[in-house]
Amino acid sequence: MKLAHATWALALVACGAGNYQSARIAPTSAPVDHSLFAKEPEGRLAEEDLQRLLASPIALDLPARVGVVPIVTATDWRGPSPDFTHVPRGASAFAGALRGSPSFSLVTEVLPIPSGALGMEALRETAARYALRYILLYREELGRRSEANGIAAGYVTLLGALFLPGQTLAVDGFVEASLFDVKTGLLLFTVRRAVHGDRGSNLWYTDRKLEELAGSVATRAAPELAGDVRGDVGRFAEAVEVENKRRM
Prior knowledge:
The protein is an alpha/beta fold. The protein has a domain at about 30-140 and about 175-195 and about 220-245: Anticodon-binding domain (Rossmann fold), CATH 3.40.50. It is built from six helices and eight strands. The protein has helices spanning about 1-25, 45-55, 90-100, 120-130, 160-165, 205-245; strands spanning about 65-70, 75, 80, 105-110, 115, 135-150, 165-180, 185-200. It is elongated and about 65 Å long.
C-alpha cells in the first residue's frame, strides 16, 4: 500500500513538472519594454506573462531621473486618503543623500502615496506626471514604547514625578527603500536597515517625545540607507550584465 501511494505521488509530481515545462517560454533577446501587469490595484499577472518576464533580459537605463515616494498609512477606511500629517520624517534626508549619485541624473521628492491602497498602477501614473524613469519607495516601520526604569523609584515624591527621567522611551523598527521600474512595473530590489533609539524622560508629553525620537532615529538612518541603495544599484547593474550575457 505504501509503495502504491509513493508511486501515485511521483506520478503527480511528474505531471506537475510536465505542465510547468510546457508553460515555460524560451529566452528572448529583447527586454520587456512595457508593463504586463493588469491595470488594477492587485496587478495580476497571467502565467504566460510571468514566464515571459523571467525569460527576457533586463533593461537598466542609467543614469536616469528618480523620485523618492514616501509611503504613508491611509487615514480613512472608506478610501485611500493618505495621512499627510505623518509623512516619514527621513524621506527628505534620504533623497538628499542620493543627490550626486552617478546613477541618478536627478533626485526629486514625490507626493506621498498611501500604503497598499492604490496599487502599482497609481505609482506609475504619479511617476509619469514627474516624467520619472524610476522611483524609490521609501517606508518607515517604527514601533514606540515607554517603560519605567530604576529612576522611577523617585516618583514616590511629587517633585520627583515632575522632573526625574524615570521613563525610558524607545523606538525600534526599520527603514526601507525599493527601486521601482516605472516603464515595466517591476520592483528591482529592496534594501532595509534596522534602527533603534532610546532616551530617558520624565512623565511629561510622552507621545510628543516619542514622535520626536522616531523622527530623529529615521533621519539619522536615512543617509545610511541611501548608501545601501547606491551600493545595490551597482550590484544590480553587474547582475544584469552577467545574466543578459548568459541569455545571448
